[in-house]
């Protein structure tokens, strides 16, 4: 997956701006739009200068304002536009005059309105920018989150980089992917919200990710099929080289109508898209939850040595449903061998059926019993993966001893077992219903992913994500 | 659904104990088992006497202990057993001597171990109890939660009664159903965990729910098919009269093996069970999440006047996925009529596409705009249901004004709109990732259900639950 290369991908400059100007910042400090971008860039610590363009204000958030882009005394290579649509043509002229290389149009109100005049304006703007050598992101989008460049599209996006790339036609969905991925340990190389995709489109960014060594896993939210043949080529090439997970908005007629309203997208046939994903060895998912879950599985479980799962955790009913969920997802929950059961019997008070697999014993409640149970499961010759399920702020375990300390010890044991035996350990943490449990669960989740473990909010979602990972492996390793 | 009756269902006495004895309480105050039942009964405020049976202790948790059941000076009609399996035969003799009517065997270690001797012991115990006129719940189960009788199986179960009945072969799954249902407004008539079902079985409890006027909606978690023909009759009869939602553990071979280990259940054929559910007009679901979601839909959305949904909430990408989810679940997201769009255009800054449906406008951020937008959607002649989606502790809304106050106003408006227009309003509240958002979301959720609204943690789950409700209606109203 990517060797040593010296040449940078063609679009690399898009992700590494040196100086940013933001046009259309409200004098109010916070909020959505221009002000939000200022806040986000300051928060993540963009190292280059940020110039604000404002007709009257002297300074906003401590940054000097200029009446027009042309008045900025330094070079500017990247411009974020939050001005009204009708003011964009002038801004493009100013960008050309300043030698700007990338124009991010947060500005909306173009083709997606369904108004032909506004669609024509969008085409004219992008044509003018392109002929002057300026690449356009958008319009109608949130732009870029590139931790390594200290570039953020929303507040709360951390500077710590990672190996997951994401391209999204929706700013909100890009934001949700990041937001829900962060507490589960996903970190990002480049996240792109490209909206109407009038110039730079999904195909451009997927082609970029193909060559980008910082990106090991790619997730995408696409509403429309733009430049179909090129997009298909990009998906096929990328799907062959890196894990590629695709969420298609507009997979129904109603969704397709909504997609057209949202980003002027023509959704295309789901059957064609689905066929393309299959052929490309890409993983197609149906929800934001599945998109995040799959990225977590690729990032942390990485590769399953086989389909056989040991299920470990408290609760007979949960054990039964876990076995069902795993089997329904294409995995196996084999009975443990007699010698494994004999070893487990030595470390637990329960005899018989609770150590066959699923394993549901009170030995899990004590530190030594927990370690021994997990180790024996990992040593079992007919087990490839361990699924541990737990919850916080509920059940008898919450009433015994120090739940917080026990959770920290458990996370350590789980990480050590994965490391030592080379068998993925995945953790399902049931949603908590009270604040204490919520905070304990968050703490445990962080300890787990920092230890290299895949975490999921339900057993069902863990099983489905493992199933998708396994199917992906079978397709790519055959 | 149940008229005025004077006769009580035959098993009514099981749910209305007058005096309880608990055998096998640990001298330690808290925990699982006997001590847990004492704690639960004291917490919920069981009004009758609770007698503890303990060989040596004088009192536990303020309750006087007796060396044996026979030494209890008063009448006892209900006994909870937490003694070891080998001590149960003596306890049964004591129950017979005391004239006990119901024996709840929390005690495990019988047929579910796979040991033939232990299975024989279970059969002998139950036979002896039955011939003496004692009904047995269990063994290997958590027993009953009956708020109106102030009877709880776990700590944290409130005394407020409701109209949802639940029967579960797993104590944990009964507990999870209650736990996850409570913050979404579910309240319960009777919840039963019956474990191995050696005497009283699913069929008994479903027959009871058929006649029980306090129970309007029934949820069930079943692992095995015991007394098949009678169970099938009970499901058919109940399914015809009340909403019946069934989660089948052991729907795969792996799950079936786990079910056998858990409650000695023979899972039977899923195809047969599925066919039975269809024929009975019962709703079959595949996870605990779906079981709770469906109960919430029946309890709060109650009846959809039709399949046409207006989607309201922030975010273009979320809107597209919402439309997809609803359409995939069998609902419709029709474009609003020109007159409805004209009315919406008057209350929002956005023109064009964000008011077609889904509706995604900044007017939702202000109290008046929110009220007007919801009202106009509810007035729309081609809309039957409104789905509002939101989140807390994230996004631009969390940065404007007082999020808590706005949420309270929104909940009030949503409830009023449902009430006034007779169209169900359902609310999807995205999971929060920080404590502040978590607490705000919980507060908003409670305001919503107290106002009579169905709440769901994701748009996908809301859509799927509405789809199941709609299919149920179509089957029962045709």
Structure characterization notes:
- 2 copies of one chain form a homodimer.
- Chain A has a 7-stranded mixed beta sheet with strand order 3-4-2-1-5-6-7, sandwiched between helices. Chain A has a 6-stranded mixed beta sheet with strand order 8-10-9-11-12-13, with helices on both faces.
- The first copy, chain A, folds into 3 domains: 128 residues, Rossmann fold, CATH 3.40.50; 142 residues, Rossmann fold (3-Layer(aba) Sandwich), CATH 3.40.50.261; 169 residues, Succinyl-CoA synthetase domains (Rossmann fold, 3-Layer(aba) Sandwich).
- In chain A, helix 13 packs parallel to helix 14.
- Helix content of chain A is 42%, strand content 16%.
- In chain A, strand 15, helix 13 and strand 16 form a beta-alpha-beta unit.
- Chain A contains 15 helices and 17 strands.
- In chain A, 59% of the residues are buried.
- With 478 residues, chain A is an alpha/beta fold.
- At the A-B interface, helix 4, helix 7, helix 10 and helix 14 of A face helix 4, helix 7, helix 10 and helix 14 of B.
Question: What secondary-structure arrangement, pairings included, does this model have?
Answer:
Two copies of one chain form a homodimer.
Chain A: E1 20-23, H1 34-44, E2 50-53, E3 59-60, E4 63-66, E5 78-81, H2 88-98, E6 102-105, H3 116-131, E7 135-137, E8 143-145, E9 161-168, H4 171-181, E10 188-193, H5 202-211, E11 217-222, H6 228-241, E12 244-248, H7 253-263, H8 270-280, E13 283-285, H9 288-301, E14 309-313, H10 316-328, H11 338-347, H12 367-379, E15 385-390, H13 403-421, E16 425-429, H14 435-450, E17 454-456, H15 459-477
Parallel strand pairs in A: 1-2, 1-5, 2-4, 5-6, 6-7, 9-10, 9-11, 11-12, 12-13, 14-15, 15-16, 16-17
Antiparallel strand pairs in A: 3-4, 8-10
């Amino acid at each position: 997956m990517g060797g040593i290369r010296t040449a940078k991908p063609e679009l690399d400059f898009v992700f590494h701006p040196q100086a940013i100007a933001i046009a259309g910042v409200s004098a109010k400090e916070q909020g959505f739009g221009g002000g939000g971008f200022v806040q986000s860039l300051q928060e993540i610590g963009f190292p280059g200068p940020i110039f604000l363009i404002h007709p009257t204000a002297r300074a906003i958030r401590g940054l000097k304002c200029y009446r027009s882009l042309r008045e900025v005394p330094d070079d500017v290579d990247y411009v974020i536009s939050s001005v009204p649509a009708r003011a964009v043509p002038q801004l493009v002229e100013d960008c050309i005059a300043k030698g700007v290389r990338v124009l991010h149009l947060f500005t909306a109100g173009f083709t997606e309105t369904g108004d032909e005049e506004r669609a024509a304006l969008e085409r004219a703007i992008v044509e003018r920018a392109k002929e002057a050598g300026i690449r356009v992101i958008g319009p109608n989008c949130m732009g870029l989150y590139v931790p390594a460049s200290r570039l953020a599209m929303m507040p709360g996006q951390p500077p710590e980089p990672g190996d997951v790339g994401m391209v999204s036609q929706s700013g909100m969905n890009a934001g949700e992917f990041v937001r829900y991925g962060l507490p589960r340990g996903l970190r990002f190389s480049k996240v792109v919200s490209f909206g109407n995709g009038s110039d730079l489109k999904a195909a451009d960014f997927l082609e970029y990710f193909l060559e980008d060594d910082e990106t090991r896993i790619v997730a995408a939210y696409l509403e429309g099929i733009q430049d179909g043949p090129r997009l298909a080529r990009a998906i096929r090439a990328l799907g062959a080289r890196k894990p590629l997970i695709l969420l298609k908005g507009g997979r129904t007629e109603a969704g397709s109508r909504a997609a057209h309203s949202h980003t002027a997208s023509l959704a295309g046939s789901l059957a064609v898209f689905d066929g393309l994903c299959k052929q490309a060895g890409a993983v197609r998912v149906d929800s934001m939850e599945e998109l995040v879950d799959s990225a977590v599985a690729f990032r942390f479980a990485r590769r399953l040595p086989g389909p056989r799962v040991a299920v470990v955790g408290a609760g007979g009913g949960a054990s039964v449903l876990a076995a069902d969920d795993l089997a329904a997802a294409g995995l196996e929950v084999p009975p443990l061998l007699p010698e494994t059961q004999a070893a487990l019997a030595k470390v637990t008070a329960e005899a018989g059926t609770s150590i066959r697999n699923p394993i549901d014993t009170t030995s899990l409640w004590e530190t030594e019993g927990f370690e021994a149970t997990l180790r024996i499961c990992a040593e079992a010759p007919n087990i490839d993966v361990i699924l541990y399920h737990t919850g916080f702020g509920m059940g008898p375990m919450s009433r015994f001893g120090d739940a917080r300390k026990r959770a920290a010890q458990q996370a350590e044991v789980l990480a050590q077992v994965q490391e030592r035996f080379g068998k993925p350990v995945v953790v399902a943490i049931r949603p908590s219903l009270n604040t204490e449990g919520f905070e304990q669960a968050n703490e445990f989740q962080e300890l787990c992913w920092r230890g290299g473990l895949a975490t999921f909010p339900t057993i069902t979602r863990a099983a489905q994500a493992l199933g998708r990972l396994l199917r992906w492996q079978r397709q790519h390793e055959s």
